[in-house]
Amino acid sequence: MLNFQYYMPTRIIFGPDSLDKLGDTPHLPRGDKAMIVIGESGVMIEQGYLARVQSLLSRQDVQTIVFDRIKPNPESDAVDEAAAVCREMGVKFVIGLGGGSTIDSAKAIATMATNPGKYWDYMQSGTGGGQTPENEPLPIVAIPTTAGTGTEADPWTVITKSGTDAREKVGWGYDGTFPALSIVDPRLMLSVPPRQTAYTGMDAFFHATEAYLATCRQPASDALALEAVHLISHTLPQAVAEGDNLEARTVMAWACTAAGLCETYSSCISQHSLEHALSAFHPDLPHGAGLVLLSKAYFGFLAAHGEERLGDLALAMGDTLAEDLDEEVTGVAFLDALDTLITGVGLADEKLSDYGVTREEIPALAENALTVMGELFDVTPVEMDVDDVIAIFEAAYE
After folding, report:
1. Mind giving me the DSSP string for 305-360?
2. What is the pLDDT of residues 34-57, one digit of tens each?
3. Where is the Alcohol dehydrogenase iron-type/glycerol dehydrogenase GldA domain (predicted)?
4. Packing angle, helices 246-265 and 194-213, rounded to 10
């Protein structure tokens, strides 16, 4: 645990109304032309966020072009298309405005704007080409409007391979894909609907939880993970119920960013491998929903195999009884607290079958999890083989 590296090159400007600083911050990447990447839903336009960002950038003499073809589970063809536009139009830096999908896409687009070939040539797993980018990406600016992925504080980007039969959703990144600047303004999150607030908040919760359990953890990630788990457990139900509560939104925004830092200093574990398989097979499944639907079965497996640090997480969630429990049942305390949180944010009634998942495809899902995102099993504290993964999927399906 005490052999680690600590590296965080991103400048984060945090707090309500911090977006206003975009118009005069000296930390904006240099260049007179930027691509703003937004989702295909049009929410950034409807809420006025796109126009506001464009206006603030104009104060710094930056012209903008907009790429608006990003899906909730972004695909590699869109990355390649946008990168070609960047090269053609002489774009100097890329801005991701929106949720994790748009910011992740901005990182991938920035990489491909300066490197040859297709995005999937650089994926290190699945059918990826395993290449290493030769050239530094364009600078990246992240402006999140949800509290979920924490991508504003890490180098990771999650993209799905295009094609109906591809079924590969891969997390990837390196030092070059850290944002140069991230502006985290909780006011931009006031418009997020309750269910999406719940999905994204639970995503942040599991980033922190997994980072605390990962075998590559370190002191900085441990401290931030427990902070994020505590804050989310006590604040997410309120943010779901009171979407216009700026204090709750601000706490959730920090918890999300803290969990993103955990992904930089530590790592997610194989719960994310299983979920990536699910949403690769079923792209309409929100990532946070998939994690929730897997969580009781997944962490139940860890608890059954004696993972002691689940007790620390139960304490962070506010279960004071966990202090007096025997090691054998601290995992139960965490599972009880997790069940309470899921119920409190209104997600207790969802089922995998709601999203078209079938029991018959479970063996294929397990194989996908172990191969496409297999490296996360290497930092999972409990060893798992294909039969274990199938058993987790089966238990989650009940």
Report:
1. TT-TTHHHHHHHTT-GGGGGS-GGGHHHHHHHHHHHHHHHTT-TT--GGGGT--GG
2. 999 999 999 999 999 999 999 999
3. 9-186
4. 30
DSSP state of 288: H
Helix boundaries (H) for 113-218: 194-213
128-to-82, 115, 287, 367, 373 alpha-carbon distances in Å:
20, 16, 22, 17, 12
pLDDT given at position 324: 54
The closest of 172, 179, 79, 85 to 119, measured between CA atoms, is 79
Q: Which two tokens stand for residue 99?
A: 């949720």
Q: Are 86 and 140 in contact (CB under 8 A)?
A: no
What residues are paired with 39 via a beta bridge?
Answer: 70
pLDDT computed for residue 231 by the predictor: 97
CA distance 330 to 377: 23
DSSP state of 4: -
Can you say whether residue 318 is alpha, beta or left, with left for phi > 0 and alpha for psi between -120 and 50 degrees? left
Q: Which residues pair with 33 in a beta bridge?
A: 63
Separation CA 314–CA 303 (nearest Å):
12
> Cα–Cα distances in Å, from 312 out to 225, 322, 358, 361?
11, 8, 35, 35
Tokens 């997600």, residue? 347
Contacts of 102 (CB under 8 A, 6+ apart): 37, 38, 39, 70, 74, 96
- Cite the beta strand spans of 71-111 per DSSP E: 93-98
Cα three-residue angle 338-340-345, rounded to 5 degrees: 95
- pTM (global) more than 0.90: yes
Describe the chain by its helix, strand, coil percentages, rounded to 5.
55, 10, 35
